[in-house]
Design a protein that fits this description.
By secondary structure, this protein is of the alpha/beta class. The chain folds into 2 domains: about 130 residues, Leucine Dehydrogenase, chain A, domain 1 (Rossmann fold, 3-Layer(aba) Sandwich); about 140 residues, NAD(P)-binding Rossmann-like Domain (Rossmann fold, 3-Layer(aba) Sandwich). It contains 10 helices and 12 strands. The strands form 2 sheets. The chain has a 6-stranded mixed beta sheet. β11, α8 and β12 form a beta-alpha-beta unit. α1 crosses α10 and α9 crosses α10. The chain is globular.
Length: about 280
């Protein structure tokens, strides 16, 4: 069986290690590859993708690939973002396992419920941000502040999600005011690439406190500069590697029809990744 990851400039990805490790654990004859495609050439790979068993989707194709889907589940309908596709008789069925990936990561970190009074600061407004907002919504959050360099894209995300999520308060804040917004937030989620293979943080250290829950979707390095600041401040943190593994297990559950979203598989894959070297 053949699976893969569709994205662009994703040589840093750990997804092949995760999925190929799981295939070995399950003794399944399957392989997972990287399918690196420029946005303007996405149409060129559609026929190829219809002839494999399934694939994940990452930056920058999570929203743009939706037009090729034949069927979608609730997560894609609500978020307008797809990260997992199952191919059945050449048809594309779209899912978003980022949502459950985030929820499972929170639960495994002993965060089982969040308050509707919490204010969640979302850095970014792409497909990952939409999934994060829906995940936090399911966990109980009702107040979201979206910070993004593009005001237009942020408002587009707010408009889209407002159609499906009830009793939610959305606010847009300019990127230059993100640190001030962090001071007024309870939850911070980094859905931007800032911090990937770098010593950068989207927020200043002085704007993080022990009252924050900080979630960083960046997973390489595992302890990003943002998470390092958060840990020093005494905040609760959830790292991107945990989310990456759990969303991958959710995808495999869909593809293989086997419940692999289990702690034992998470731990084996985590162990493999740590030995693989998480640094850039």
């Amino acid at each position: 069986m053949r699976y893969g990851l569709l994205g662009y400039r994703i040589s840093y990805t750990l997804s092949p290690v995760i999925h190929n490790t799981l295939y070995r654990l399950l003794n399944i004859n399957a392989v997972y590859e990287v399918i690196d495609v420029e946005p303007e050439k996405l149409t060129d790979v559609v026929d190829y993708l219809r002839n494999i068993n399934g694939f994940n989707i990452t930056i920058p194709h999570k929203v743009s690939f939706i037009k090729y889907l034949d069927l979608i589940d609730k997560t894609v309908e609500i978020t307008g973002s797809v990260n997992t596709v199952k191919v059945v008789n050449g048809k594309f069925i779209g899912y978003n396992t980022d949502v459950n990936g985030i929820i499972n990561s929170l639960i495994s970190s002993k965060i089982n419920k969040l308050s509707e009074d919490d204010i969640a600061l979302i850095l970014g407004a792409g497909g990952a941000a939409r999934a994060a907002i829906y995940a936090l919504y399911i966990m109980g959050v009702r107040n979201f502040v979206i910070v993004n360099r593009s005001r237009e894209r942020a408002l587009e995300t707010i408009t889209y999600l407002s159609r499906s999520l009830s009793n939610v308060n959305f606010k847009y804040v300019e990127w230059s005011l993100r640190n001030d917004a962090a001071n007024k937030s309870d939850i911070i989620v980094n859905c931007t690439p800032v911090g990937t293979c770098s010593n950068e943080s989207p927020l200043d250290k002085s704007n993080l406190s022990s009252n924050h829950l900080v979630i960083d979707l960046v997973y390489r390095p595992r302890v990003t500069k943002l998470l390092s600041y958060a840990i020093q401040a005494g905040a609760k943190v959830v790292d991107g590697l945990k989310i990456l593994i759990y969303q991958a297990l959710e995808a495999e559950k869909i593809w293989l029809n086997i419940d692999v979203v289990q702690r034992k598989y998470f731990e084996k894959i985590e162990e493999m990744l740590i030995s693989h070297d998480l640094e850039c």
